[in-house]
Specification:
Helix content is 27%, strand content 41%. It has one domain. It is built from one helix and four strands.
Length: 59
Amino acid sequence: MKDVRPKFVHVKGIGFSALVPLDSYENGLRELIESLYGKVQIRIVDMRRGVYTSRGHGS
């Protein structure tokens, strides 16, 4: 049985922090955020385990 609980991305920049759905982030939201805030740090949040998975920029 497939787990359908979503994954989120915690996006952090200078003066900016947001939790957004991973699929939204990968489907255009990343470009918007980077155009507004420049380089940002992201962490994948897996709601199934409730843990953060660190992911460097550009991976």
